[in-house]
Design goal:
With about 500 residues, the protein is an all-alpha fold. The protein has one domain (about 5-495). Helices cover about 70% and strands about 0% of the residues. It contains 21 helices and two strands. The chain has a two-stranded antiparallel sheet. α6 runs antiparallel to α8 (about 205-225), α13 packs antiparallel against α17 (about 410-440) and α15 packs antiparallel against α17 (about 410-440). The radius of gyration is 22 Å and the shape is globular.
């Protein structure tokens, strides 16, 4: 077990917070230092995340008591396999997004400050061990995302951003209500303590606890863009700057992570709350897949098409996670793949739009691309990955999910939605590619892809290739993660039995 003197566990939250504060000063005194400092801090997070993955892969659960108060009375950070995997994925996406956004950062003030705050919110959401601080970190990352979404944007982005803000404010209000209900009936908001106390609740408190669970489901459904709470996503992601849209590829995964964490860790025991909401979640997941597939087929814009692919992936993950077992392990493998693939596809789509002049990303005839070979190869690889075609890791993830769901009662619905959406996504991407690369006329009007964006695409391609080539090791890790989630007692014991640092050790006495 990782004990309190090992402070590495808190660094993914503290480092970006400290860097954000430092960048506020640097922005005034040495503006040219902002990008290098932000890149170094993000690279350090990537290196640290690999260390934490190695720690979690040894079947250890790290616990860090902020303030040295024993759980459930103090704030606690917890690192298990799932949290470590999400930290590493966030670091890779952030590093690529930051490399691609070096020009974007020059359009206005405070870009790097909000970028680091976004990382602090994301990492905190993955590490926190209680409901209230999950809410706090949600708000940190959402406030930062508002600023990043509108950075250097025009009126259309402002309108979409307003919808995004209003919907998430409503979600935040519901989150507070749900947290209040849980605290009122259980007397705690700590995940591990809730897992122990909820099954023992008297019958008269059961209704309130179920209501709180449903409210949490709704809040997390907004973050994950699950139907009917995800109508905001296509337009919002479509108007975001390319590097920010790539970073936002991880945002819906925060909602999915929260659903998985709460449903397995808090409500995954043998009590009356076990399996909460699974039938409804499965139905909403399939409905989200269908909606995303129809949207991808109907849209006439490339960037909007990629946004609808995000909805398909969210629905796929939600439906697969409710099936548990081997399907859950396959879903976690697919989660990493689809985040990398969609982030890369957003970057490619925005680069194509930038070389088509006023035509932008709309289908139909447009100016000739300045870099048709580079963009064509990048689009082909990213499209194959996003649609789940062989031989890339998306195909492996889908096979794992389908194999793991063979004996599930709703397997037929799951298979039909996965295979049908994959076919539609392939057709939609092929049509988009034909329109972007074959329907061109007139002179070249665009600018070449910046070096930072090429570096970002290379990084995402390398990460995806590693995830595919080392599929055996990756699937072993995700399968072990699913097994760990299926044993919530391990999480609860690690947190509740973790003792504070003795006073003499905290002072450094011999």
């Amino acid at each position: 077990m990782m004990y309190a003197p090992d402070h590495w566990l808190v660094v993914p939250v503290v480092l970006p917070l400290v860097m954000a504060a430092l960048l506020l000063v640097v922005e005034r005194l040495r503006p040219a230092w902002q990008a290098p400092l932000s890149l170094v801090a993000t690279l350090a997070l990537a290196v640290l995340s690999l260390r934490l993955v190695a720690f979690a892969d040894a079947d250890q659960i790290g616990v860090y008591l902020l303030g040295n108060w024993q759980a459930p009375f103090g704030i606690v950070l917890v690192l298990d396999r799932l949290a470590a995997m999400m930290l590493a994925l966030t670091a890779v996406i952030a590093l690529a997004s930051l490399a691609a956004s070096l020009r974007l950062a020059e359009r206005g003030a405070h870009f790097h400050v909000f970028f680091q705050l976004q990382l602090a919110g994301l990492n905190g959401a993955f590490l926190t061990g209680d409901v209230f601080n999950l809410f706090v970190f949600f708000e940190v990352l959402l406030i930062a995302s508002y600023a990043l979404l509108l950075h250097g944007a025009g009126g259309r982005a402002l309108r979409s951003g307003l919808h995004y803000v209003v919907i998430n404010l409503i979600g935040a209000s519901l989150f507070l209500v749900a947290a209040s209900l849980l605290y009122g009936v259980a007397g705690t908001l700590n995940f591990a303590d809730l897992a122990v106390k909820l099954p023992a609740l008297p019958e008269w408190d059961a209704g309130l606890a179920r209501a709180a669970a449903l409210l949490l489901l709704a809040v997390f459904g907004v973050k994950a863009a699950v139907l009917p709470l995800g109508f905001w996503l296509p337009e919002t992601y479509a108007v975001a700057p390319g590097p920010i849209a790539a970073l936002f590829a991880i945002m819906t995964k925060v909602g999915i992570y929260a659903i998985v964490r709460v449903s397995f860790t808090v409500f995954g025991g043998d009590g009356w709350m076990a399996g909460w909401g699974e039938p409804a979640l499965f139905a909403l997941g399939v409905a989200t897949i269908v909606f995303g597939a129809l949207g991808a087929l109907a849209t006439r814009r490339l960037i909007a098409l990629v946004a609808y692919l995000v909805l398909i992936s969210s629905g796929t993950l939600i439906a697969a996670c409710t099936l548990g077992g081997e399907a859950l392990g396959g879903a976690l493998y697919y989660l990493v793949h689809t985040t990398l693939a969609v982030a890369a596809l957003f970057l490619v789509a925005h680069a194509i739009a930038g070389q088509r002049g006023l035509r932008g990303d709309r289908f139909g005839y447009g100016p000739q691309l300045l870099q048709p070979t580079l963009l064509g190869i990048a689009f082909l690889v990213a499209a194959v990955a996003a649609s789940g075609l062989p031989p890339l890791s998306g195909f492996i993830g889908k096979v794992l999910m389908l194999q793991g769901s063979v004996n599930a009662p709703l397997a037929a619905w799951f298979w039909a939605s996965i295979l049908g959406s994959g076919l539609i996504a392939t057709f939609a991407l092929a049509r988009a590619g034909g329109s972007m690369f074959w329907k061109s006329r007139g002179d070249v009007v665009g600018l070449p892809m910046p070096l930072g964006e090429r570096v970002a695409l290379t990084l995402l391609a390398v990460a995806g290739a590693i995830w595919m080539v080392d599929a055996g090791g990756a699937t072993r890790f995700t399968a072990a993660t699913a097994q760990q989630l299926a044993q919530p007692g391990l999480y609860a014991d690690a947190v509740l039995r973790h003792v504070p640092v003795p006073p003499h050790a905290a002072r450094g006495a011999p």
